[in-house]
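Ticket #4471: structure export looks truncated?
Reporter: QA, pipeline team
Priority: medium

Steps to reproduce: submit the single chain below to the structure queue and open the exported record.
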Amino acid sequence: MLRRIAVFMILVMMLGTAWADEPELPQSPDLTPEAPAEVHTDTPDSPDAPAEVSEPAEPDNTDELAAREAALSERAAELGALADELTEREAALEQQEQEFASRASILAGKIRENAGTNAVLTGRESQLSQRETSLMERERALAWRETVFAQESQKFTAASATLAEREADLAKREAELAAREAELNAKVAAKEAADLLTARESELVKREAALTEREATSARLSELEAELKQKEAALASREEAVAAREAAASEQERKLAEAARTATEHEEALASRESALTAREAELAKKNEELEASTSVLTAREVSLVNKEGEATRKAAEIAEMETLIRELPAFDPNSSTEAAMILTYKLPAERRRELIAMQREAYTRYSSNRITLALESYTAAYEAEPNANYLAAYWAGLCAERLRGRRDEAETWADRALAINPDYRPAQELKRRLEAPARRRSGR
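Actual output as written to the record:
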């Protein structure tokens, strides 16, 4: 509305300017200022003007006024057309303003959405940074635990070897003890046989003494035979009784001697068995002590194995937790990402991927500290660890070779290796185009 009023005021001002620019008409000295000569216009005649002028000597002025009126009419028509055009333009401008207002509101909404999205992305970025820090701490703890586990494994291997040696020594000693026991048994048997021979010799000595006594007695009897013959008659009955008693005494003496020999042999056998049993008991006690020591060692070994199993279980739980956290992270684009975490997209075992990530981070530490040659060696080792999968290490090795003087061909070779593994890897494609650009420029010149 304000624009329409402004347009109307502009038209009025233009009309006023046009009227002001017209030259004043000459007036007759006999005419009053209020009553001009007769003019044929569309305006009504003034009531004070006379009907006729006595001096009709101005026809040219009337034609000139008619021409000016026609020009003013044309100009008014042009101004009307201009007003209509301005009205149309105003409507178009209002429509454009409305469209601009709607677009501005849409843009403001998008700006608010972008602000919210940026806030969400900032939060997610901070969360990812915290998760990455947590993962790095867990990786360091895992590496430390793996080192401790390796040390414990080495100790366990050494202890197992020592235990195996001790077991072999124990088996050898048991074999030696068995051989000694067999030897002692043979000696005991030989001693028992010797004791039997000694007992038989003592019995023979006793019998010889008895025979000697009997021979002496027989000689004495021969000497007294004469006297006995004299007393034969008197002593015949007594001699028979004495002979009977002597036979009984001999028989009793023989039985007593046999009983004494049997008792002696039994006592000697018991003594030898008791000594053998005592030695055997001492050996068994010693073996029992050695077995107890071995049992304690084996118990400690079992405890160590249980602890190691628990450590392995905890390690597996940590690995599972780490893989869960990795799965919760946003997916990396394997065709554009250059970060070490992109190795998680490799189709390799989790342990192997962790090793490659550790190697990648070590190489990047050297690269960021401007030790390019050492970084190239580290990236080369990481690539050679998995030459069929680790195209990220090949790409970074190409970057290192590009920064070294006179090794652009090697850098191009590394780019080709990365693209041989993943032809869609865009950073390697860009590196290859950058390396081939000077050669194309030279060929173009």
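Status: closed, not a bug. The export was complete when the record was re-opened. Leaving a note from the reviewer for reference: The mean pLDDT is 78.
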